[in-house]
Design goal:
The protein has no helices and 11 strands. It is mostly beta strands.
Length: 116
């Protein structure tokens, strides 16, 4: 069974930083794309950032220049470094991975709260 374990969420003041981690396990197949989505209360789940196995990244316009996604292929782990956090970044952040056979998996979510 593929499992995604997220960590790193918490409460931080505006302008602060957090680093999220998502470790994938239980698969003999590689993960072509790993990334992060977020969902605020009462709102839809939106893409934050993705990264391919080769290191090609994609970011939502709202986080460009502030967030950095990276991955360690040897550890099947994806990270999201979040700097200059804003109250608008408050949400539950979900890890999402796609296997090279096409299967999609979601993490349990980790809460990020940014106070003004």
């Amino acid at each position: 069974q593929v499992q995604l374990v997220e960590s790193g969420g918490g409460l931080v003041q505006a302008g602060g930083s957090l680093r999220l981690s998502c470790a994938a396990s239980g698969s003999i197949f590689s993960f072509t794309v790993m990334g992060w989505f977020r969902q605020a209360p009462g709102k839809q789940r939106d893409l934050v950032a993705t990264i391919t196995r080769g290191g090609v990244t994609n970011y939502a316009d709202s986080v460009k220049g502030r967030f950095t996604i990276s991955r360690d292929n040897a550890k099947d782990t994806v990270y999201l470094q979040m700097n200059y956090l804003k109250p608008e970044d408050t949400a539950v952040y979900y890890c999402r991975v796609i296997q090279n056979i096409g299967s999609v998996y979601w993490g349990q979510g980790t809460q990020v709260t940014v106070s003004a």
